[in-house]
Amino acid sequence: MDCYTANWNPLGDSAFYRKYELYSMDWDLKEELRDCLVAAAPYGGPIALLRNPGRKEKPASARPVLEIYSASGVPLASLLWKSGPMVSLGWSAEEELLCVQEDGVVLVYGLHGDFRRHFSMGNEVLQNRVLDARIFHTEFGSGVAILTGAHRFTLSANVGDLKLRRMPEVPGLQSAPSCWTTMCQDRVAHILLAVGPDLYLLDHAACSAVTPPGLAPGVSSFLQMAVSFTYRHLALFTDTGYIWMGTASLKEKLCEFNCNIRAPPKQMVWCSRPRSKERAVVVAWERRLMVVGDASESIQFVLDEDSYLVPELDGVRIFSRSTHEFLHEVPVASEEIFKIASMAPGALLLEAQKEYEKESQKADEYLREIQELGQLPQAVQQCIEAAGHEHWPDMQKSLLRAASFGKCFLDRFPPDNFVRMCQDLRVLNAIRDYHIGIPLTYSQYKQLTIQVLLDRLVLRRLYPLAIQICEYLRLPEVQGVSRILAHWACYKVQQKDVSDEDVARAINQKLGDTPGVSYSDIAARAYGCGRTELSIKLLEYEPRSGEQVPLLLKMKRSKLALSKAIESGDTDLVFTVLLHLKNELNRGDFFMTLRNQPMALSLYRQFCKHQELETLKDLYNQDDNHQELGSFHVRASYAAEERIEGRVAALQTAADAFYKAKNEFAAKATEDQMRLLRLQRRLEDELGGRFLDLSVHDTVTTLILSGQNKRAEQLARDFRIPDKRLWWLKLTALADMEDWEELEKFSKSKKSPIGYLPFVEICMKQHNKYEAKKYASRVGPEQKVKALLLVGDVAQAADVAIEHRNEAEMSLVLSHCTGATDGATADKIQRARAQAQKK
Amino acid sequence: MAFPHRPDAPELPDFSMLKRLARDQLIYLLEQQHEVDKLYKVENKPPFSSSEQLCFLVRPRIKNMRYIANLVNADKMAGRTRKYKVIFSPQKFYACEMVLEEEGIYGDVSCDEWAFSLLPLDVDLLSMELPEFFRDYFLEGDQCWINTVAQALHLLSTLYGPFPNCYGIGRCAKMSHELWRKLEEEEDGETKGRRPEIGHVFLLDRDVDFVTALCSQVVYEGLVDDTFRVKCGSVDFGPEVTSSDKSLKVLLNAEDKVFNEIRNEHFSNVFGFLSQKARNLQAQYDRRRGMDIKQMKNFVSQELKGLKQEHRLLSLHIGACESIMKKKTKQDFQELIKTEHALLEGFSIRESTNYIEEHIDRQVSPIESLRLMCLLSITENGLIPKDYRSLKTQYLQSYGPEHLLTFSNLRRAGLLTEQAPGDTLTAMESKVSKLVTDKAAGKITDAFSSLAKRSNFRAISKKLNLIPRVDGEYDLKVPRDMAYVFSGAYVPLSCRIIEQVLERQSWQGLDEVVRLLNCSELAFTDMTKEDKASSESLRLILVVFLGGCTFSEISALRFLGREKGYRFIFLTTAVTNSVRLMEAMSEVKA
Hints:
The complex is a heterodimer of chains A (about 850) and B (about 600).
Chain A: E1 8-11, E2 15-24, E3 37-40, E4 47-51, E5 65-69, E6 75-80, E7 86-91, E8 97-101, E9 105-109, E10 115-120, H1 123-128, E11 130-138, E12 141-148, E13 153-156, E14 165-166, E15 179-185, E16 188-195, E17 198-202, E18 207-210, E19 222-227, E20 233-238, E21 242-247, E22 253-258, E23 267-270, E24 280-284, E25 288-293, E26 299-302, E27 307-312, E28 315-320, E29 323-329, H2 332-338, H3 345-357, H4 362-372, H5 376-389, H6 393-407, H7 416-432, H8 442-448, H9 450-459, H10 463-473, H11 481-492, H12 500-511, H13 519-528, H14 532-540, H15 545-554, H16 558-568, H17 571-584, H18 587-595, H19 598-611, H20 613-622, H21 626-639, H22 644-660, H23 664-687, H24 696-705, H25 709-718, H26 723-737, H27 740-749, H28 757-765, H29 769-776, H30 781-791, H31 794-804, H32 807-816, H33 823-838
Antiparallel strand pairs in A: 1-2, 2-29, 3-4, 4-5, 5-6, 7-8, 8-9, 9-10, 11-12, 12-13, 13-14, 15-16, 16-17, 17-18, 19-20, 20-21, 21-22, 23-24, 24-25, 25-26, 27-28, 28-29
Helix pairs in contact in A: 2-3, 2-5, 3-4, 3-5, 3-6, 5-6, 5-7, 6-7, 10-11, 11-12, 11-13, 12-14, 13-14, 15-16, 16-17, 19-20, 21-22, 22-23, 24-25, 24-26, 26-27, 26-28, 28-29, 28-30, 29-30, 30-31, 31-32, 31-33, 32-33
Chain B: H1 16-33, E1 53-58, H2 62-77, E2 83-88, H3 94-102, E3 109-113, E4 119-122, E5 125-127, H4 132-139, H5 144-160, E6 165-169, H6 171-186, E7 200-205, H7 210-214, H8 220-228, E8 234-237, H9 239-242, E9 248-251, H10 257-262, H11 267-286, H12 293-330, H13 333-345, H14 349-361, H15 366-379, H16 385-399, H17 403-413, H18 422-437, H19 447-452, H20 457-464, H21 493-504, H22 511-516, E10 523-527, E11 540-546, H23 551-564, E12 567-572, H24 578-585
Parallel strand pairs in B: 1-2, 2-3, 5-12, 6-7, 7-11, 11-12
Antiparallel strand pairs in B: 4-5, 6-10, 8-9
Helix pairs in contact in B: 2-3, 5-6, 11-12, 13-14, 14-15, 14-16, 15-24
C-alpha cells in the first residue's frame, strides 16, 4: 500500500490529481479516433462514433458507419449512415443520440441505434448549411446550438419542446469564429464566441463585446474555450499559450497559466469537483495532456494514443483506442487518509484496523490516540466517505472494514451512513462492471439519483439487473420493480417476430398481478406499435375497466369499450363512451347499439329527458316503444305546450301511440282528457272563471259551487262518473256551501247509493249537529249506532246497540261513554251485556 | 318499558368520525379553497348576492346544472363577470359536466367534489341522504348512484376494518357489492391487516320488499315520520305540538333520552309510558321538599338541569302524541289499519277494494289512495282487470290526467299492475331470462323485468310465516316477535329475510323464497376466511337498504337484535316511508 499514492500528482500545495484506469477498451477500433466524429455522454454514458464522416469525394459505397458503444467499449449498435452528411453528434440528457446534419436536420436515435424522430433547425439553417454544431445540457433538457455558413447562430434550449431562436448578428463577422461555446446563465442559453482578439456574448436580444478581466496583453486570437460542467467557470486558451481561468460571468479572474505551447490544443475541459476550491483545466494536444490550475507548475502526462476527453461532474474521463481512464482531484477524505504521514483520524483508524488484523497491540495504541482526541466519530466518517470515492472494491472493503472496526468502539453511532454506503457501493460496483459499462463515481451517482440510474438501465434493456437493484435497495414496488417490469413489457411488445398470443402470455406470466403494473400502458404501447390485436389481448389482463375503455376508444373498438364500461358499473365511463359513439356513429347505428345495451340506453334516456327531448322521442320511435311515446306526448301536453290547440294535438298523438301500444285504457283516458280540455275551454268562455287543468271531479265540483247544477249533471253523465262518487261529490260540495236546503233536496232526490252515514259525517264536519241529526234518523240499521254516536246521542246509540244485541256495537258505545253524564248509559249497557251472557 | 340490551350486546363503532371527516373537508373546501363567507339555499330563483364569486354546493343532477347555467348566462347577458364554483356532493358526474359544456359555461365554472356520502343520523343509523336514489334506480334504471354506494361501503371498510361476511339480495345489491369488491382489490390491502369491527353486511334492494314500506307505521318513530316528516334526523314540531305560537325544530336521536325510550314502541303504549314518566318526573321534583340547604344546592347544581331538559322533551313528545291522535282519529285510522291488515292477510279482498274505491270517492288524499292501490296490487299479484280499470279511472277523474304517467311509472316499477292471464306472463318471463343470460344485460334493471315480476306475496308470506298466528290478544307491551311494529299483524318481509339468512349464515334452504322474490340469480353470500373476527364483531351487523328503509324496519331489527344479542347498524340511501315512496313515483305538473 506504500505505493498507493504513486499516481497522485500534486498541483500547487493544496491539491492532488490522480488518474486511474476504468476499463481497457475492447472495442477493436479499426480507425484512429481522430478520423471519427466522436460523442460521449456524461455520467458514464455511451460513446457514439461515426467512421468516415462525410467525405464527399469518397464513393457512395464507402458510406459512413455509425457505431454506439458502452463506456467499456461493448458494442451496442452499428448502422450504415444513409442520410445526409453529418456535422456533429451529441447525446441528450435522456441518452438519445442527436445527429446534426449539414442541412440542419437533426435525427434522433435511441441507445440501440433505433430511429426515434427528426426535426429541422429551420429554413435559415437549411439555406446556409451548418458549419458547426454543439449539443449542450441545461436544466430544461438538452439543447442544440448551430453555427451556419452565414456565421449566424440558431439554437434551441430544449429539443423536447422545440423552440428555435435565431441569435442576433455579430457586427462585422466575416469568417467563422476561432472558437465558441454555449453557456447557460440564469436559465437562459447564451453563446460566447471569439473573433480574433475580441470576445462576444450573444443572448437572444443583443450581441455585446466582453473582455475578461486581467487578461494578459498581447492576445491576438483565442484558440480554445471551455465552460465547466456546471456552467460556472470559463477557461480561454490564447495563441500565446496563455490560459485564462475565471468565472463564466466574466466578472472575475480566478487564475492564469502560461504553458508556452502555441499549438492549438485538441480539447480543453474543466476538471473540478463540486464544493472544491480547486480549479483546474485539462488541456489535450496530440500526444500531451496537461493539468493546469492555480499553481506555477502544471501536471503533465504523455498520451500514447489519440485520446478523447469527456468532462464529468467531478473529473474528466479520457478514452483512447485501448484504455478508458478517469482523471480527478483526490477528494478530501481520501487525501486525509492516504497522504503520506497523515495523522488524520481516518488514517490512524485505517492503520489501527490493519494492525488489529495482524493481531498487533499497535492497534490499541492507534485507537487510543484517536480516542484521546475524541475523534473516533470523525475517523469512522472519513473512512466511510473515502470508501465511496475508491474505484477498486478491495480498497473500498478495506476502508469499510476500518469504519466498521472503529464503530465498535462508539456508543450509539448511527449506522445509516455506513449501511447506505455499503449498499451504494454494491450498486456502483455492479454497474461499473465491464459488461454493463457505466463508470459512475459516487458523486455522479448521487447527483443522478437512483431513479434515473434505473431508467438508464432500463434503456440499456438491463431489466434483470435493474430489478435486482430495486429488490436489493428495497425500493417500493410501484417505483421500482413494477415500473421496470412495465418497461420490459413495453419492450416485449415491440418484438414483432413473436406472435400476439406468445407475447401476451409471456407478459402475463412475468407480470402477473404485480401491483402498480398498468396493463393498459403496455397495451397502449402495443397499439402504438400497430399491434391492435395484441393490445386488446393485453387489455384483458387490465383489472380496472376504467383504464381499458379510453384505449379501446382510441383503437376504435367503441362497442367493446361500451360493454367494458358497462361491466365496470361506472356510469361516468359509460357516458364517456356514449358521447364518443354518438359522434362516431350515425344516428341509426348509434340507436341500434344502444338498443342492445339497456343500461346505456336508460342512462342516455335520462340525459335526453333533460337535455334533448327530441332525441328521446326518436329513441322511443326507433324502438317502437309506443307506450313510452304516448307518455312522452302526454307530458308534452301539459309541460311543453301552452296553447289549447297544441295541447289537444299532443294528446291526440299520445292517444294514437297508446292505440299502437294496445293500451286501450290509456288511449281512452287521453281522449277523455282532450274532450275535457275542449269543454273546459268552452266553460271558461261561457261562464268565466278558471276551469282549465281541473280534473273531471274538480270541474264538476266547481260547477256545483257556482250553481251550475244542470251543467254539472251533464258533465257527470258525459264522463260517466259513477253514482257513488257523484253523490259524495255533491254532498261535499253542498255542505261546503252550507246549502242545507239543497242538500236535503238532494238527499231526497232518490235513495242514496252511499247510504246516509256520509251525510251525517259531512254535516258534523261542518259542525251542523242539527242537520246531521236529520240524516242520522235515515241511516240504515247496520250503521245506526255509528251515526248516533257521531251526532253525540250516546243514550240512543246504547239503546240501538242493546236492541241489536251486538257485542261490538256495545263496546263501541261504551268507549264513547265519558264523564258523569253518560254514567247511566254505561250501566245500562253493562246490564244488557250481563243479561246477554246469562242467556 | 324500553327494552334494555342484552349485557353481551356488542358496542357500536363510533360513527362521529364520519361527521368530523366530512365537516373538515367541507370547511376546507369552502374556506380555504373557495373563500366562501355566506351560504344560500339553492332554489329556483336567482340568489340575492352581489358578491364577486358564487359557489354552489349541489347534488350532481342535470336539473341543478341547468339552474346554474341559466344563472351564469343571465349574468353574462347583463355583462356581469363573476367567478363560479360548483362543489358536487358526493361526487361529480360526467353527464353534469356535459350539460355545463352544452350550455356553454364549462369554461366559466370550476368544479370540485365533496365526497360526503354518509351522514350519521344516529348512533346506529347512517344515511346517504339520497332520496332520489329510489326513483333513479328503481324507476329510471339509472345506475349512477351504485358507484356512490360502493364508495360508501369502501369508506366504511377502510375506517372500520374489512367485512368478513356479506350477504345480499337484489340486482342493485349485487352490483354494489361487486363494485365495492373491485374498489377493495384496486386499493391493495389497506384494510388487510385490520381486525374487522363489523362482522356481517347485508345488502337489500327496496324492490325485494315493497309491502313493508307501503304499510302505515304504528311504531312511535315511524308515526312521527308519517305525520310530521322527519328530515335529516330532525323534525319540525308545529304550534299544535309545542303548545306555543312557534314551531320548534327537534333532533330525534338517541341523545334525546325520552325519545330513545319510546321510539321503538307501539303507539298504543307510548301515552301510558309518557304519563308514567311525567309522574316520575314530578316525584323527582317533589324531592325538593324537605331538603336541607346542602342537599338543595346539590340538587340545583346537578339534577335540576337534567330534569328540566327531560321535562321539556316530555312535554314535546306528549304534544306530538296528542297531535298524532287527533289526526289519526279524524281519518278513521282504525278502519284504514283494518283494511291494510286484511290486505296483508289476504281476506275480504272485495271489501278492501270497495274501501279503496270509497277512499277515492271521499277524496281523502291522493297519495294515500295510491298507496292502498299499490298495497292491494302487490299482495294480490296485481289487480283484476276490472278493478284495475275502474280504480284508475276514478283516480284520474279525481286527481288529474297527468297521473296516467304516474300509473305508467307504478306499472314499470311493479308497484301497481294488472293481473295478466298466465300465458302472457310466461312469454314475458322467458324474454327477460333471455336478457339475463347475456352478461351485460344481466347487469341491468330494465323496465321489462319488473313488468314480468309477480310479487308472489301470498306464497312468500306463507313460506316465511309473515302473518303470526294469533292466539288471543297480541300483547303489544311485551312483543313476541317483529310483528309488533305492525300491531302484531305482520312481520316485515325485509327483516324476516335478514333474520333467516343470519340464522343460516347463508341462503341455504331459502331457495324457494328467493325464487318467489324473482331474485334467483341475485342472492349472494360472500364469506372471506377471516379468523381475526372477534365473536363480538360477528354480532355486529350492517344492513344496507338500497332505495330506503322505514323506521318500522329499523325498530323491528332493533327488536331482533335485542332478542338475539346482535347489534344492527343501518345504512340507507335515505329514510323513507309510504308517502315518500308514492311521491317518488308520482308525476306532478311542474
